[in-house]
Amino acid sequence: MLKHEKKQYKKVVLAYSGGLDTSTIVPWLKENYGCEVVCFVADVGQERDDLDGIEQKAIQSGATKCVVKDLREEFVKDYVFETFKTGAIYEGEYLLGTAIARPIIAKAMVECALAEGADAVAHGATGKGNDQVRFESAVAALAPQLDVIAPWREWTMQSREELLAYLNERHIPCKATLKKIYSRDANVLHISTEGGELEDTWNAASENVWVWTTDPQKAPDTPETFELTVKNGLVTEFNGQAMTPFEIISKLNDLGAKHGVGRIDITENRLVGMKSRGCYETPGGTIIYKALRAVEQLVLDKNTRIFRDHLAVEFAQLVYDGRWFTRLREILMASADELAKDVNGKVVVKLYKGNCEVIQKSSPNSLFNFDFVTFGADEVYDQHDAEGFIRLYSLPYRIRALNAQKNGK
Question: For residues 246 and 149, what is the distance between their CA atoms, to the nearest angstrom?
């Protein structure tokens, strides 16, 4: 089962989900590396069914112990909300639901490995995806002394049939079946779905793809509105009630899902060089993203807004590519924090059949002043000044045209 011989380890901490892949990895590590295996489970707000009985499942697979860490509040506060503050959105649509979760999972896994005295960590990411890079880059930045084992790049097994046969031979129980139509990953921010009919981009996503959100056509016929308070680029209150970041996104997930908000179907560029198609459901995140951008419209001047747009693209690429634990992320985040000092205000959001609109917005730092944009007289703007401004602004075009006339073009 191992392509070539590897050195032996005493203890390995495995990022464990309880699915077929990681259930197979536990006995495989013991057999091929002669090690004790500790399973590490990160609770980042995935479905509760995914966590029920997971400790017992890990032990039955051969693990010495299973450590479950509740990271929900930290995940939303220090990763999701911080990323949203930058305006990051990957390739114009993807709110980075899977990518944002990887650094906190990797960090907690490393902390577990150090506490357990492990000499290596392992993960179940494949050799074709982004997650292998995200996990291993984080380990390199946080604990370079730890080795990383990636079984999918080492073993010879290639199919679900082979993995199930491997477990059956060892009498290890697993609820997985041969038929797995979709590959899904969930946390409190989103759920992603790949595979099945999505492998052909000409196939429309069936209703079986969407598991969180209501079909917009079947969503309530009555719109729903509510108020969000934004302080320093963070959503802090719902209808005037202060909530923790996890409570806020959970509340907005329920509302957004009810009204069919937050569905996207995209074909994206993976870090490893190929394209992949995924359907993502991010109801609460979509609402928060639009609320923050609405307040920014009021408070950021033109040049600052352009800079923030550049920052958003750079930060999205950084998160997607697994570069969270880098000096560049700290520098970009410092810029985002400075920008966010003025991003304070309130918005009223309307949800209706898949649409999320900000219909009211205000800010104590708003640069919008009706007295200045009206056609009436004011003390700040003299309309006669526009003539000189336009003449200077268009001077390069005038010079180019005069040169063309002079040269007979």
Answer: 32
Q: Which member of 131, 184, 293, 342 is catalytic?
A: 131
Tell me if the domain spanning 184-300+342-362 has CATH number 3.90.1260.10: yes
Q: What is the DSSP string of 163-192?
A: HHHHHHHTT------S---EEEEE-SS-EE
What pTM was computed for the model?
0.91
Candidate list 17, 23, 61, 102, residue with the active-site label: 102
Catalytic (active site) residue 131 = yes
pLDDT in tens, 81-98: 999 999 999 999 999 999
- Among 50, 70, 147, 183, the one annotated catalytic: 183
Per-residue pLDDT of 301-328, as tens digits, reads: 999 999 999 999 999 999 999 999 999 9
Topology agreement, domain 11-73+100-180 and domain 184-300+342-362: no
Best CATH choice for the domain 11-73+100-180 from the list 3.40.50.150, 3.40.50.620, 3.30.505.50, 3.30.870.10: 3.40.50.620
